[in-house]
């Protein structure tokens, strides 16, 4: 290696070696390392070991939370497939039997009409699940169009008026940014249904400070942010999603005055 002198200090955390600090060829006339150099290196190594260990534990914890969130989502989808789609298909099978067992043409036509309704409902349920997994509008037309579709579906299901206002024009954002912001709005709308008791929710997309901003605001019950645990409303998951694209999230809420989520992602 062409090394003339070297100093090696282990990174040790709780009695476990996690790495090493290596120094070669001291940049002085005398290239030999001294006892003072060793003590300085040991101080640095002790602090670096704590920092490396902390970053590794944070990374493991983040991965664990992501996996837990994925498993929760899979369980929810599995329940919906079993409870809604599964029951609908069972009803369709029974409907086919009723057509075959019909005593006359009128009875058969009534059974067929009821069966058609079941098929239409089952198709709608499957399409809704597909949209939740990955909306085609997000890939084909961009974030604004996908959010308009999401808001329309949300309004039909919840009865809460949902409006989307976009200042992005025809511009497409990086795919990763579009996905992160779409999932954030999706989670925010879920919170509105579960907790807000709102009558109206607005979603606004804007250009801001060289990036893109998204505001999701409702006129619901609101809450005191200091009284809510960080993970209680999925806020931690939202912030972790945004952190992937260097984004930030602010929450503004007052009891009785609704809630606003303000997300920002830099684009440069």
Q: Kindly state the mean pLDDT as a whole number?
A: 86
Query: What is the level-2 CATH architecture name of the largest domain?
Result: 2-Layer Sandwich
Which percent range fits the helix content? 55-70%
| Integer count of domains | 2
**SSE string, helices as H and strands as E:** EEHHHHEHEEHEE
Structural class: alpha+beta
Q: What's the count of strands? A: 7
CATH superfamily of the largest domain: Histidine kinase-like ATPase, C-terminal domain
Rg over C-alpha atoms, rounded to the nearest angstrom = 28 Å
* Text of the CATH class of the largest domain: Alpha Beta
State the end-to-end distance.
41 Å
Walk across the major sheet and give the strand order: 3-4-5-7-6
Low-confidence stretches: none
Describe the structure concisely for a colleague.
With 268 residues, this protein is α+β, with helices and mostly antiparallel strands. The protein contains six helices and seven strands; from the N terminus they run ββααααβαββαββ. The chain has two domains: 1-133; 135-268, Histidine kinase-like ATPase, C-terminal domain (Heat Shock Protein 90, 2-Layer Sandwich), CATH 3.30.565.
């Amino acid at each position: 290696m062409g090394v003339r002198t070297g100093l090696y200090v282990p990174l040790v955390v709780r009695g476990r070696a996690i790495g090493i600090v290596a120094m070669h060829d001291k940049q002085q006339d005398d290239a030999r390392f001294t006892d003072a150099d060793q003590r300085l290196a040991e101080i640095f190594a002790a602090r670096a070991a704590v920092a490396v260990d902390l970053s590794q534990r944070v990374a493991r914890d983040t991965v664990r939370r992501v996996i837990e969130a994925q498993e929760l989502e899979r369980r929810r989808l599995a329940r919906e497939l079993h409870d809604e789609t599964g029951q609908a298909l069972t009803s369709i099978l029974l409907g086919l039997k009723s057509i075959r067992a019909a005593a006359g043409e009128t009875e058969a036509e009534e059974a067929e009409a009821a069966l058609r309704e079941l098929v239409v409902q089952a198709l709608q349920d499957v399409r809704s699940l597909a949209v939740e997994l990955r909306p085609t509008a997000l890939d084909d037309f961009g974030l604004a169009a996908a959010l308009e579709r999401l808001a329309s579906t949300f309004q039909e299901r919840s009865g809460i008026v949902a409006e989307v206002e976009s200042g992005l024009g025809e511009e497409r954002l990086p795919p990763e940014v579009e996905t992160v912001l779409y999932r954030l709005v999706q989670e925010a709308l879920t919170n509105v249904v579960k907790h807000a008791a709102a009558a109206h929710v607005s979603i606004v997309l804007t250009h801001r400070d060289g990036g893109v901003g998204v505001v999701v605001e409702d006129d619901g019950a609101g809450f005191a942010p200091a009284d809510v645990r960080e993970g209680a409303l999925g806020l931690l998951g939202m912030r972790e999603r945004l952190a992937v694209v260097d984004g930030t999230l602010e929450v503004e809420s007052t009891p009785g005055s609704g809630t606003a989520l303000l997300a920002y992602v830099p684009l440069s």
